């Protein structure tokens, strides 16, 4: 019992220690958060205290957008647009810009009439004068037409008054042609005299009239019509067809009233014509941005981050076991990147709207000014405090790098590290799929997979805003090396494939292709088949060449034997001392040898015509079983003389086929004759005939007198004989003729040799549409 009590006491002590340790950790966590909140609030107060300095800096930086070189440039060019409107109104015409500003030389009034004979002649000559005329005309019309597209925008911000100094005619967007200089914030006029010389009006108003006058002088000097069209001459000289005419007796005034300007300035800047915000000065936002507000925010952010990261705590205390700080490393990184990115837009706009009073004016519509001011300051401090506390929290999370070490921290806190094996496996799968995709099949699915993966990566990168540019560079470098490796791999596989093809082209048909060809792998079976096909063709060619040689030898032998005998017996017959009996004997031999030579030549002609298809077939109805019986009846005596025992087993069914009776008779005559010549005397000969559905099969089997050393397939070749010594009488064409005649009639003749057993099978198709009698 005492031991049990001690154990329970020890367990209680351990539990108490764990609770105490946990309380200390929670106490540390609470205390650290409290320090962070206090530090963030102090930084927020200090940062807010600088709003007055930011506002003072803004006043020094901020300039009026209308007092820029771009602004004055556009106003001067609008003078040309308004002069054309004025000219057409006064003279009741509708001249284009080129017709107005390109004055024809004396006698060249036709230059603006494309239908005139002189213009057509100039066009036909296609000289530099024509090019200069067309180029200058097109440029003036296009340039001022583009300005017309932004004129309506200019009309929103500027008042203008155009005057024809000769007639007193007026064009204006004012309700009254009278302009009170005292009420104007901006005032600028351009005056063209009777010679087209331009000057600035005596009065110029604006925030900085000197700057406005300077810009106006530069624009008048650089953007005169002569300067705009100076590149459209002939070999560096002005065209002789026209001269450039400036506006004359014309004054144009641009102005902005004080009240209108204050409205525009509250909108931060005015949207000048020409597309987008065209100005050289600072807008209100830009002025606050460059006043140091963003930089100071980043300084406070960095100080809080470093303080949380390096402020000393007891070595016994650890932040690693607190769940509050055990967030993934990527989340902390994203948090810090977001806090830094906010400096360029969100924080600057916060400072601008608080310091400039915009937020306060918005709240004053619902509450007193004092309450609105307090509310804005409170919300400002709260927003800044949250941002600064985010830096403190990020620094605290990164303290684990000091406690665990960079390697252990990445292993335990990085989500990417944890899923890296999975990502690596998937990446290798996609890479392998790219490296081994079947080029004979559609690659749409694979392409979509690659596009989606790349899209996800780019989406992640784009979420980092400005910082994403650095990641894009890294991603592009990595992608470059991946693509380089991939393309190098394809090139290497292609080299292997090309080498294999070259070996085949050079005649090496025995090589093996065992290498992995990647995307070219589907071509491997095709190339192997080509290699085998070439090898078979070569073997067939060699075999054919050998057969040609044997053919020549066999033909020479089989023709020479009877010819020699004929010549010999003719010489013997020349002997006058021969008896009548000897003479008759010699003549019988001559007749026999001549007939053999005749049969040999006829057989040679027959097989030649059959192999080339140059033979006429006369198809008639033939009872195939009866035809075989007729052949056997004709050869019955010779079969008996050869000592062969015929065993006939033909179906009693009448089988009528559409065949050439003479050629079919010759087939079975040759087959039976072959048996008589080569069958072993005293053996049985089996001839069977039967029908299977729409097929007739007739087989002939016998035992050869000599062992057959020739393959069954070769026996149907020309001049191939079963006895290699060629002692028996025959041409060696019998089986070749039989096979050719059979195939010409859509039949099939097959030989089988098994030791001394010789078997011939002929197969015929029955025309089922033809009635059987």
From TrEMBL:
Q: Name one GO molecular function term.
A: ATP binding
Say where the protein is mainly found. Answer: membrane
Where is the secretion signal located?
none
Cross-referenced PROSITE patterns, in alphabetical order?
A: HIS_KIN
Cellular location(s): Cell membrane
Glycosyltransferase as a keyword of this entry, yes or no, is no
Q: What is its EC number?
A: 2.7.13.3
CC annotations in GO: plasma membrane
Q: Can you state which reaction this protein catalyses?
A: ATP + protein L-histidine = ADP + protein N-phospho-L-histidine
Query: In its UniProt entry, what is this protein called?
Result: histidine kinase
| Membrane-spanning ranges | 30-54, 294-311, 332-352, 372-394, 451-483
Membrane topology classification:
Multi-pass membrane protein
Source organism phylogeny = Bacteria, Bacillati, Bacillota, Clostridia, Lachnospirales
- List the Pfam families hit by this protein, alphabetically: HATPase_c (PF02518), HisKA (PF00512)
């Amino acid at each position: 019992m005492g031991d049990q009590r001690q154990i329970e006491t020890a367990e209680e002590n351990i539990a108490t220690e764990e609770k105490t340790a946990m309380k200390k950790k929670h106490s540390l966590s609470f205390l650290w958060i409290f320090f962070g909140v206090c530090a963030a609030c102090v930084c927020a107060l200090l940062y807010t205290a600088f709003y007055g300095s930011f506002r003072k800096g803004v006043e020094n930086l901020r300039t009026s957008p209308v007092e820029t070189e771009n602004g004055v440039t556009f106003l001067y060019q609008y003078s040309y647009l308004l002069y054309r409107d004025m000219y057409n109104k006064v003279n009741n015409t509708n001249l284009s810009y080129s017709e107005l500003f390109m004055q024809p030389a004396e006698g060249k009034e036709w230059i603006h009439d494309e239908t005139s004979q002189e213009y057509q002649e100039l066009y036909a000559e296609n000289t530099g004068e024509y090019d200069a005329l067309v180029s200058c005309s097109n440029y003036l019309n296009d340039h001022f037409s583009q300005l017309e597209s932004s004129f309506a925008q200019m009309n929103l911000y500027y008042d203008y008054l155009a005057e024809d100094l000769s007639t007193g005619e007026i064009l204006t967007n004012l309700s009254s042609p009278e302009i009170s200089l005292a009420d104007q914030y901006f005032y600028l006029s351009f005056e063209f005299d009777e010679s087209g010389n331009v000057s600035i009006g005596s009065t110029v108003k604006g925030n900085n009239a000197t700057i406005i006058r300077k810009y106006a002088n530069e624009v008048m000097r650089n953007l005169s019509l002569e300067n705009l069209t100076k590149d459209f001459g002939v070999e560096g000289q002005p065209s002789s067809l026209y001269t450039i005419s400036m506006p004359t007796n014309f004054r144009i005034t641009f102005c902005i009233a004080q009240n209108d300007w204050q409205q525009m300035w509250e909108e931060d800047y005015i949207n000048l014509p020409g597309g987008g915000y065209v100005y050289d000065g600072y807008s209100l936002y830009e002025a606050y941005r460059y006043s140091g507000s963003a930089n100071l925010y980043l300084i406070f952010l960095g100080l809080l981050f470093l303080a949380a990261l390096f402020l000393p705590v007891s070595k016994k205390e650890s932040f690693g076991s607190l769940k509050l700080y055990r967030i993934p490393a990527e989340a902390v990184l994203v948090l810090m990147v977001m806090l830094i990115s906010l400096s360029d837009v969100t924080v600057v706009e916060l400072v601008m709207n608080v310091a400039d009073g915009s937020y306060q004016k918005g709240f004053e519509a619902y509450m007193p000014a004092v309450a609105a001011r307090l509310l804005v300051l409170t919300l400002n401090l709260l927003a800044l405090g949250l941002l600064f506390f985010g830096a403190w929290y990020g620094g605290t999370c990164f303290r684990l790098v000091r406690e665990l070490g960079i390697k252990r921290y990445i292993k335990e806190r990085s989500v990417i590290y944890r899923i890296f094996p999975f990502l690596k496996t998937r990446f290798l799968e996609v890479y392998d799929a790219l490296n081994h995709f079947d080029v004979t099949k559609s690659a749409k699915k694979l392409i979509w997979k690659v596009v989606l993966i790349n899209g996800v990566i780019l989406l992640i990168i784009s979420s980092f805003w400005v910082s994403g540019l650095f990641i894009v560079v890294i991603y592009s470098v990595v992608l470059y090396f991946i693509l380089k490796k991939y393309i190098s791999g394809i090139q290497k596989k292609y080299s292997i494939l090309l080498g294999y093809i070259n070996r085949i082209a050079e005649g090496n048909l025995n090589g093996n292709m065992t290498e992995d060809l990647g995307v070219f792998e589907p071509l491997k079976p095709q190339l192997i088949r080509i290699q085998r096909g070439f090898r078979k063709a070569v073997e067939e060619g060699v075999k054919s060449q050998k057969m040609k040689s044997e053919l020549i030898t066999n033909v020479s032998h089989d023709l020479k034997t009877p010819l020699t005998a004929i010549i010999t017996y003719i010489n013997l017959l020349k002997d006058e001392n021969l008896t009548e009996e000897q003479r008759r004997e010699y003549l019988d031999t001559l007749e026999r040898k001549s007939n053999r030579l005749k049969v040999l030549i006829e057989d040679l002609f027959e097989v030649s015509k059959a192999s080339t298809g140059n033979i006429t077939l006369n198809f008639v109805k033939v009872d195939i079983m009866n035809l075989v019986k007729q052949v056997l009846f004709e050869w019955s005596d010779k079969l008996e003389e050869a000592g062969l025992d015929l065993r006939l087993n033909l179906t009693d069914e009448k089988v009528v086929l559409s065949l050439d009776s003479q050629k079919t008779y010759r087939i079975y005559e040759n087959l039976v004759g072959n048996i008589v010549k080569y069958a072993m005397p005293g053996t049985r000969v089996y001839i069977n005939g039967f029908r299977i559905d729409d097929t007739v099969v007739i087989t002939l089997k016998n035992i050869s007198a000599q062992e057959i050393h020739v393959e069954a397939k070769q026996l149907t070749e020309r001049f191939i004989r079963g006895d290699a010594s060629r002692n028996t009488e025959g041409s060696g064409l019998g089986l070749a003729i039989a096979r050719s005649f059979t195939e010409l009639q859509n039949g099939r003749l097959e030989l089988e040799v098994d030791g001394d057993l010789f078997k011939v099978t002929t197969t015929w198709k029955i025309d089922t549409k033809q009635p059987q009698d």
